[in-house]
Amino acid sequence: MKTKNFLWLFVSFFLLTIPTLQSSAMADEVEIELMEVSGFLPGDNPLDGPDQGGGGNTPPHPLDFRATIDGCTLEITSGTHSAQVIVRNSAGAQVLNRQFVGGTVEQIASPGSYNLEIQSGSLRLVGMFDAE
Q1: Domain with 38 in it: what CATH number?
Q2: Does 82 map to a domain?
Q3: Which residues, including other chains, have CB under 8 Å from residue 46's CB and lie 6 or more apart?
Q4: Of 16, 94, 101, 126, which one has the greatest count of Cβ atoms within 10 A?
Q5: What's the pLDDT score for residue 81?
Q6: What was the pLDDT predicted at 120?
Q7: How much is the pTM?
Q8: Domain membership flag for residue 42
Q9: Is the predicted pLDDT of residue 55 greater than 60, yes or no?
Q10: Contact 69, 129 (CB under 8 A)
Q11: Is the separation of the CB atoms in 131 and 112 below 8 Å?
């Protein structure tokens, strides 16, 4: 009788903790706040429209870039702009340096705190994130 009660208690406890174990093991996607530290200076921007002589070139804008972290997976997206992505760990060592156009998904090697830098033309965005 004691064995049956113990088994029932063990199974009940295990079934009750499964949702908690799953939710703590699954990381949520978190958007990385990007701060503009340098950009186009007045007079440096290409003119927007062909009627103004600019040929339709549109400079990158901070809102064109989005960065998220989900566990140790870093995802960076941009409409059509190419950019250089640099990630440094908390000691300042470079762990990623990659050119991309449109989007990239990278696996960060280990959990920890990181600094992110995105450069596109003279636009420079920085952010910080924790990989879990």
Answers
A1: 2.60.40.3080
A2: yes
A3: 54, 55, 57, 58, 59
A4: 126
A5: 81
A6: 87
A7: 0.65
A8: yes
A9: no
A10: yes
A11: yes
